[in-house]
Amino acid sequence: MTKRAVAVLGVGLVEPDEAVLTSDDLGLTRGDGCFEATRVVTTEDGSHLIDHLDAHLDRLQVSAQALGMPDVDRSAWRGLITQLLAGWDVAGEATLKLMLTRGRESTPTGPTTGIATLTPTSEISLRLRRTGISVIILSRGTASYAYTAAPWLLGGVKTLSYAVNVAASRIALQRGADDVIFTSSDGYILEGPTSAVVWSSSGRLHTTPTGPTGILASITQRALFDAAEAAGIPTSYTLGTVAELRASDGVWLVSSARGVVAVHTINGNQLAHTPALSDRIAALAGF
Ligand code: PLP
Question: Using a 6 Å CB cutoff, which residues line ligand 1?
Fold first, then answer.
């Protein structure tokens, strides 16, 4: 069985198969909560490197605040992560997940539920990093400005309610593709179900703006853009179209655990793809 480590806020490390939720936990009954995921690299000598932990705790706090939940106890999470990593000696890449729910329906003033898990990064993710991916374009059904002044839509919040994202990924597989790029109802590129979209044209990197579009502010994309700017590559937040992706020098889906994957095909049509450029983008993003 794949090795897994699990820890619970207020409890500590638990057996990986131990039950950690009650049947009335609002994370389960309503998807009411938020989460984070990032990469942990374990070296042969057993030391651990966690990617961008501060940024992930910052974003967990932003999500919790948007959901009207109590402030994230950063030192409690850090302590829990330390416990989780203490017994982890699987060399290579693992995915650290932090899940936070509103807590139990039967105790509305009770504590939130916090669970951290660590699992080896899937072979599929590692393979797709090497091979690149095919994507299909699916509409998310909302306009590129739909999230303006509509905080109840939870734009940019990494909620636990990912059933729509998972459904889109499933449909991609059913249609023989690896992944999805969502577009807005007015025809602009948004994001993938679990990734940000980055494209290169005329020597400049582009990604979709957050805010009115409702997309998640990707930590991987931000790290990539910071490194690109430092290396003299200009970057822009651009509302782009599928036609612009097709005419670009390269398109990538980027995310914290899977890293940087090059898109080689959109809706069955091959894209321009320069492996050296993909290698550069991956290295700038820290992959
Ligand atoms: N957009 C969505 C909807 C995501 O779920 C994710 C990551 O899981 C991303 C973008 C990429 O964000 P990050 O780079 O912070 O992992």
Answer: 37, 191, 194-196, 216, 218-221, 254-256
